[in-house]
Amino acid sequence: MIIVFLKFAVCAAVILYFGKRVARYGDAIAEKTGLSGLWIGVILVSIATSLPELFTGVGSTVFVNAPDLSVGNLFGANSYNLVNIVTLDLLHKGGPLLSAVSTGQLLTACFSLIPLSIAAVGIFLTPHLPDISIANVSIYSILIFAAYLFLVRMIFKYEQKQKKISDELHKEEDIVFKYDKISLNTAILRYAIAAIFIAGAGIWLAYLGEEMARLMDLGQNFVGSLFLGFATTLPEITVSIAALRLGAKELAVANMVGSNLFNITIIFINDLLYRKSPIFETLSQHHIFTAFIVILMTAIVASAIIMKPRKKTRIGLSGYAIALIIVFVIGAYINFNLGNK
């Protein structure tokens, strides 16, 4: 058991080091290309930090023959990404974090619910209705992938529109660049190298998490949604903390909500690789509860972005952060009981 925890510590240290570099060079790419921190966070950084979920899902589906574990990991990872905003809020100086980000984050948060809702509806309906599939891939998986492509395009168009407005407002101002000494090609290369290390360490971390869960004799539903969910989201929180310390608030939050948008799309990839049947025919109804918890937590985040609270509580957390903790803990408790029935 001690050896496993030592491996876990080494893996976490690698993620911490290269997570800082992913955040730094992701921020540099945003500056060099003129793309916003939101767009870079939603696409470039969130996909890089979600690679552990992707490869853990592939491993669970193809090699372990446990698609339930994979989907539980994805739903659980989304709940962890949202509760990780609590940590970012605690570290953010000068007021509630979500009051300091753009309304584009609201768009992404709300959009992340669409693939999630399709997945939850698919899990609920499949036992009751004939599952429509194409080449043994469920129609729900296809809808999830199509929704992701459409929503990412919508976010890009929104950001382009906001950029034009911002350029008009600031065209006469002197713009201060933070990364004058780094070329775009250098930033991309260093970002790619750091992302590879993050992905590799994150995949290793997922298998270590599975090994630790097995040694602790926990149920499969609990392992997938909570234990592996925590393990595979360590890259996200590490990168977001590094981004926050760089002053890249948009990138820090966008990495979390962008990862939630991308994670559910991994179900489509798993369905492509799972040849025994459409993947929705194998999934437990228990995942619907986890999806409900993620929807509720996303609603809290969206409400905070809209209402923009001005002050934190005496314990250094915003009211929405406390609400996120409460919902997460209650959900984890109920999920544990469901998973062991």
Give an account of the 3D structure.
The structure is a single chain. The chain is mostly helical and 341 residues long. It has one domain: NCX, central ion-binding region (A middle domain of Talin 1). Helices cover 76% and strands 1% of the residues. The protein is built from 12 helices and 2 strands, in the order αααααββααααααα. A two-stranded antiparallel sheet has the order 1-2. A hairpin with a 2-residue loop joins β1 and β2 (137-138). The protein is globular and about 55 Å long. The two termini are 27 Å apart. Residues 168-176 have low confidence and may be disordered.
Q: Which descriptors apply to this entry?
A:
mainly alpha, globular, 12 helices, 341 residues
